[in-house]
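Task: sequence design from structure.
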């Protein structure tokens, strides 16, 4: 176990499910951190700390409140069971999905599982057909990596330096490996290999700015 694990998410899932009786897709990833659950929970829910490793956040950070990540998604806080489960709606442009984070004890630390559920509506399907699960998975994998580095380095973690790293050759290599891994999981879930790998390549190009 290593909070600086270069492979990011350690267990990936791509599957079909339902949300509110409607067909949906689920993309989920798991990673183990050496931090205790309370420490990890605080890093995930404390506005000041979220701004260190992810994005600046504003809003009423309690059940029923709304949050907004600067330049990214916003939504409603639907569930907050400290230090076990956090659920929010994830509203970005014309897409609405749901993100759930679960924490549970693991050997030497805490297992974090994040799942994002997307309805099979017109907007979501158009994005899925182009990028597959990697559009979601790579983004969260980068977030998981940043969280791990922040937990190790604390306030010395430089988010701007981390963002710059994404445009470096090492950062692009990480993105490509992550996209490929999601592509392979997509194949395991039943997608045609050529289609899944083409989607993964499109995802990698998008994140790398190519």
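Answer:
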């Amino acid at each position: 176990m290593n909070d600086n694990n270069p492979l990011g998410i350690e267990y990936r899932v791509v599957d079909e499910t339902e949300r509110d009786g409607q067909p949906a897709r689920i993309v989920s990833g798991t990673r183990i951190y050496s931090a205790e659950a309370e420490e990890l929970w605080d890093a995930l829910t404390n506005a000041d700390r979220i701004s260190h490793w992810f994005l600046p956040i504003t809003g009423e950070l309690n059940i029923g409140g709304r949050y907004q990540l600067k330049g990214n998604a916003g939504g409603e806080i639907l569930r907050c069971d400290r230090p076990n489960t956090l659920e929010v709606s994830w509203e970005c442009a014309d897409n609405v999905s749901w993100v759930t984070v679960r924490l549970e004890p693991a050997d030497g630390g805490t297992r974090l599982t994040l799942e994002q559920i997307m309805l099979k509506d017109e907007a979501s399907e158009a994005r899925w057909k182009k990028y597959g699960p990697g559009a979601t998975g790579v983004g969260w994998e980068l977030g998981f990596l940043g969280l791990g580095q922040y937990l190790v380095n604390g306030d010395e973690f430089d988010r701007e330096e981390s963002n710059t790293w994404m445009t470096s050759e090492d950062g692009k290599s990480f993105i490509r490996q992550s996209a490929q891994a999601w592509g392979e999981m997509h194949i395991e879930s039943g997608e045609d290999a050529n289609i899944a790998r083409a989607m993964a390549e499109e995802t990698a190009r998008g994140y790398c700015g190519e």
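The helical segments are 37-45, 47-53, 122-131, 134-153, 159-165, 169-188, 193-208.
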